[in-house]
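Bench notes, bay 3.
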Amino acid sequence: MRRDEILQLPALVQDYLRYISVVKNKSNTTVSEYASDLRTFFRFLKALRLRLPTDDLSGIDVSDLDDSFMRSVTLNDAYEFLYYCKNERSNDAASRARKTSAIRQFFQYLTNNKGLLETDPMANLDSPKLKKALPKYLSVEESKRLLSSADGKNKERDYCIITLFLNCGMRLSELVGLNLSSIKSNNSMTVTGKGNKERTVYLNDACISALNAYLAVRPHDGVIDKDALFLSARLRRISPKTVQYIIKTDLEKAGLGGAGYSTHKLRHTAATLMYQTGQVDILTIKEILGHENLNTTQIYTHTNREQLRDAVNSNPLSDLRAPKSSTEDK
């Protein structure tokens, strides 16, 4: 959300956004998402109070909402808003869960940090139940096919990008933000993750080989973003959209297009292959991926069908056969 749009929000919301940005160190993306969610919430509430139609909230000004308005908001208001989001805006459960989080944390801030409210009206606001879908990931053979699909004048760069995704489990924003100075002499790399938190990622032989091959051909003359590791055709830091296009194109070349794979699915692939094939423990994977909570990493403990089949077949009773029926004895 642009700065001029943020200035059109209620003063208390502006205070809250500065708080989560500066004190809580939330990313710009998170701050922008929460700003948008809270703006929609308060536009909806103002429309209800003024008996305005809710089919288009974009023209409703909420900059004048003051302390007394915030004190008037109830838990029922929040549930009415979430009902509206589901039935009139067709928001899925994940989108509504994010809005729930934004509302809950904002009123927690008004209660605990600002002291504006004696009791938090959103303390019992429940979040929509989310389906726990298993993450999509490439098999080892599919991963090799994807690596082999990198070709053309930027072959070394694209191969290196895919290699880092598949071996290090980086987020898209982390890969785009890599610098030449991120690469350390001890075969490690400093990665800046969510909330500007830095972590060290160690590079295996495949990563080192791919990086050396790319650095040997990486342009030097006329480079605008001189420290950026990956460069675009314009000699600037490569953009997230360009990386997404590279991955999408190479997935199609590898015969993996249309399967729902993406840059984030390559992160899933790295984590899943390390856990299932490399037998790396879940706490180690948590550190490699830069997860704040172990619960987030638990999705990679899913088992594939072969493991389920092997588990059943390993039962010591698996080779027993049913006794012959009485009719067969006759």
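Next record in the batch:
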Amino acid sequence: MDKEERERMNEYTYEQIAEGHTESFQVTLTEEMMEQFLRITGDVNPLHRDAAYARTRHYADKVVYGMLTSSFYSTLAGVYLPGKYSLIHSVESKFLRPVYVGDTLTVSGVVKEKEEACRMLIVKLLITDQSGEKVSKGTMQIKMLD
């Protein structure tokens, strides 16, 4: 982790977070991200690799891997909400619209509930594209570490 990453990582404690606390960040999807995801997962589905094929399936271009889009929920928890002291217990994610290379996504989360007994946050998740269209939503349970 470089100095810039450490400086942008939040270090909220359980006590500092209240219901309604919101954090968000933006990311622009690139061809390089798609290539890295392919190398990691081995997912060679032509919907994600071949624009001509994707167009025969009525998409504007090849579709970004849904799990690549959802992987930014990990960034939300590990860097922003709560940041350093997080341990994700579960993520439920729904894909609402296709995402394409070049799209700029806003990834956001709002704390809906705090479970005192186990120091758990229940976070409502949302990802929108540059047009404000919802592309993913979900819920995450995050354990707060000491």
